[in-house]
Structure prediction request, 1370 residues.
Amino acid sequence: MSGFGLLRRHEDAGGYIAVVRPPEQPHGMGAVHRDLSNAPDDVFVVLRADERVVGYCGHVDLGTGIATALAQIVAEEMEVPFSWVRMELGHTGTTPDQGATIASETIQVAAIPLRKAAAQARETLKTLAAASHGVEVCGLHVRDGIVWSGGAEERRRVASVAELLAGRQRIVRLDEGVALKPRAAYRVVGREVPRIDIPDKATGRAVYVHDVRVEGMLHGRVVRPPYHGVEHGRQVGRSLIGVERDSISHLPGIVDVVTIGDFVGVVAEREEQAVAAAEALVIRWRQVGMPDLSDLDAALRSNPSTPRRLLDRGDVDAAIAGAVTRHEADYLWPYQMHASIGPSCAVADWRDGRPLVWSGTQNPHMLRGDLARLVETPEDRIEILRHEAAGCYGRNCADDVCGDALLLSRAVGRPVRVQLSRRQEHVWEPKGAAQLMQVSGALDARGRPVAYAFQTRYPSNVSPLLALVLTRRMDADRPTITQMGDRTSIPPYAYDNARVIVHDTPPIARASWLRGVSAMPNSFAHDSFVDELAALAGADPLAYRLDLLRDERACAMLRALADRAGWVMRHGPRPAIDRTARVLTGRGVGYAVYVHGAFPGVAAAWAAWIADVEVDRLTGVVRVLRVHIAQDAGMMVNPAGVRHQVHGNVVQSVSRVLKEEVTFDATGVTSRDWGTYPILTFAELPDIDVLLMDRPDDPPLGVGESASVPSAAAIANALFDATGVRFRELPLTPARVRPALDRALGVWVGPSEEPVPLPLPLALPRGGGAAGGRPGGTRSLRDLLKLGVVATALVQTASAALPVRPALAPVRRPEAASFDTAAIERGRLLAAAGDCAVCHTAPGGIPNAGGRMMDTPFGQIVTTNLTPDEETGIGRWSFPAFVRAMREGISRDGHHLYPAFPYTSFARMSDADLEALYAYLMTRTAISNAVPATKLAFPYGFRPAMAGWNLLFHDPNPYRPDPSRSAEWNRGAYLVDGPGHCSGCHTPRNGLGAEKSGSAYLAGGEADGWVAPPLGAVSRAPVPWTVEAMVRYLRSGHDAEHGPALGPMAPVVEEMRVLPDEDIRAIAVYLTEGHGRDGNAGPNADDRLSRMALAALREPQGARLFAGSCAACHEGEARHMDGARPDLALNSNLQEDRPDNLIRVILDGAPYAGQRGRGEMPGFRGVLDDRQIASLLRYLRAAHAPGRPGWEGLEGRIAVLRGQSGHAGRGGQ
Amino acid sequence: MIELTVNGRRHRLDVPGDAPLLHVLRNDLALRGPKYGCGLGECGACAVLIEGRVARACAVSCAAAEGRPIVTLEGLAADGRLDPVQEAFIVEQGAQCGYCLNGMIITIRALLNATPAPDEAAIRHALRYSLCRCGTHVEILRAARRACGLDPAGMSP
Prediction:
């Protein structure tokens, strides 16, 4: 609809001037040559009679405020008030195809026709005024949307826009030679203008693509194939075996499951339904092979290359051969991410083959071509409405998700919104490519460089639309290779003999352009190497650069920056590094011009950094303290916007240099969230001082991005200044920095007067703990087998001694009226204290109707129907039969019950209480529910054996109060040991499943696969339990000093809600007795910090994971935050012999359990893999249970528990 | 049926109790302020106020939010006037793409609710687990200081 069709939208204005131009071929990355013979003209500006102006630009605002700057340019040239101007960016239906929004070239390139069009509208206005008022055009000028005659002093109003345009629709072709305003006359451009988009964004009015809601819209989710983050090779599009649609047939709201090649998507009515379906859908994939990225350097070197020789000046080889000093260095840049804060999203409406797509794309016109190919529809039938999205810094998944949405919408014939998950965005976004730079050079006797040979290896195909390759609409067997590794590949320094070779190589992981594409890595090498040469020459690094620069503006900028930062000249590196200092500080410089576009490219703004850094020798943590940055961007359209962009680029590039690195294993990308790919936080923010060169008379240059380019060299050079050690690989994480410093300077042991908890061994045990020993409490299969032999022997002797018990006669179900109401009420409380319903209710079933499967070490037990149904429940049980079951573990029909039914505790109950409980149960609604019989394997399946078991282990006598204790204590003991049957879970069992006695009482056991921690005097809680804390825990399900009730304990707390406060208090009095005699007050703040720091040394990956994935909810005081924020330093699970509870909670989270305001936790099953969770647990154990041995076999245990069905973790939806 | 009180209005909604509050606010109540960022409570883009304190709506189920007053970015303005925190973010231009802006504004509002006169350290602590990828930290800190009655330029960190 571009061209005159678009102008129909302006017919409501009552008149307009439109400036148009015949379409031109788009240029730049990804631009597709198009047949333009019948294409309508592009519209650039429309000046409307109602005093509004719309500017059209094919580039988009990626969150940089470019819409504001473009509006300034239009207002300036058109001479209309800034407030009149609105920009429309990137809609394919209305804006010209100007190629991808890339490389900061919007102002430098895309704005040129816009500016000319605005000028032409102004000139047209004058022409109209001259004609209608009979005056000469040359005597007129436009200002503030009014045409005036005469000079500035005695101007006379001729006509307004409204008057001149009323009823006129004037379409003017752009005259490339139109007169532009001299810069000296600028009033809007160059002025600081607030961003026009921020008020709407600060109030929730802005409509991001994520916010688009269309009538009848459905929600889609995609499931990506198992070659995580790789998009080429024969397996792509050929790995799906099939989906099992039945696996989600029980879920509500499912509309469709769509598969095409390796593309898999689900569509549902509601978003959470789509999420649940995508998680639950069982998909079978073929085994896939992945590129080996375990050694990045080797992977880049062995990747097949097509070399391009871009510079060959003088005779490099001869110069090196004849030089006095030779020097070589390799620099390695990791894969990095855009890591947009909002995962990509799109809405597509198929509209019977004339699709409309709402998109956050960076390249609307290029995307339209891809979509046309994907759905085999002519390009001009597809319209893309571009909305703002979360900031991206190049090609992320914004385009991919449009293909996903379009395929799903086509399948269901309705609009579909697809939101990628955080994990999908992280794993599948086209990464910023890893890069290897190899440099060699030489110095003459005076230390001047005589040769410079530079090679760079860049692996990318700029990433095709993912749906194209997944569906095999595009062949991915052999990826194309792109020539994008050449940005700023030519060194900025005047080396007499110089050679530059760029190796274009195919992608390894999915990679495309990311901010400072290839220029940031190339400059890291150029500007580190020149620093190394300066050090070899014994020269000041800044002066050395100035000597080698032939660019006056660069030199002026560097001098101004040095002045501003107070640069102190040096004579080579520091003579000595203080090996006893814990913190070393240093300062470094970096300089670059970002050259973008196809080689030789176009230079954007000049930029230089002076960075101040410090490194902590103990922890290896590098901090950038301060960045002085200078930029020369020529004339700045909006200086406030430029400063803002420079700040953003400094923060982001510090983040990239210090922290960022995509990780891989044999399954592909393993960076899946903010813990596995951490970025800079407010706590790490450097102080930033921006120096913008004042160049109002020079053409504007791309800003922002160019400010990132010198970052890495400046920071690495500063670290060299501080330590004397060169870092040629990024990022500068503790895991990389500390060992390198220890190797070069010796392990830091600190000044002797300061106590230091080191030295630590350089090679740290993977197990995380020092002491050995098997984790207690876990019964291995072998143990169980051994016990089985003993059990069989016992069974044989014991069952011979005791006969099978008789059945007790069935009775008619007693009438409800036959029970005393007070007894029924007391029975209700006893049933709650005994948690009957917790075990006797199937998931989602009717309370007490039985049918829940319970895993025990002896096999699976099915709980029975406790309702008074006469056929399937206990309706025909007499009271004596009930008492016999409760006290002796014999069913009415005489068969032995297994002690999973805790009659061993219930035996302690008084006759009166048993009567009350019977009254309560018999007056419930009868539910007919026949549950399958429990069948255990031999020997446990032989029920009469339980007679012998009872003889050995069961005491059928009721509770006998201890007269030396208070009534409250006795009440607590009765509730705990009787109806509450706490020992059923919290006391360890012997090989025959009996609770151990003596000191093992409440010493910790197991419940449904969870660790039931020791209670009372043997509790391992770091802060001793008090009565008040225990009451808080039992009443609310959480205590700040101990943590939440999770797993099987959560429903117990929920059941106990009905108990009176006195009973809860009595339980607490009994259970906390004796606790804390040797207790302490928990770790103090200093201890905690040093423990965490030490643990981070031992397990740096775990520490990073904790900071990014966990700390937001688990660390630090936060009165302003909702939820319980459990403090892991105080959580007894970290002290236990087995890590199972932690593993389960990490995998599947902690769902809402009815405790208001307590908070929930999402599961990390889909985000963290076994190795990552193991590392996290090693870190936490070391940090918070320093006296306890490390857990062994963590990864195996995590894999086992992952394989067991947890409740549906909904992490990351 | 779940009953949610959002921006002063009560809504009875036929949604599952375990649906994330974020989805329901966005899809059923057509609110745009809270944004999906990670679904894991890590980044803060989805922040809302629950009983005046900041909560990460992606990690809160509807059932857990029932009966507790919820305020979103849209509900901060009162009597036709923006919340001073919003004003501060506009004045200081505390956004680039603006996707994280919701979380930043809500977090500072909650900080002010809990601590009437926070200092620089409290501000940084409060924002510590709110992620911004564009690197707008300088402007966000200026806005937060302004909202908290401090000199926007602040002291050297």
Q: What stands out?
A: Chain A touches chain B through 88 residues (CB under 8 Å).
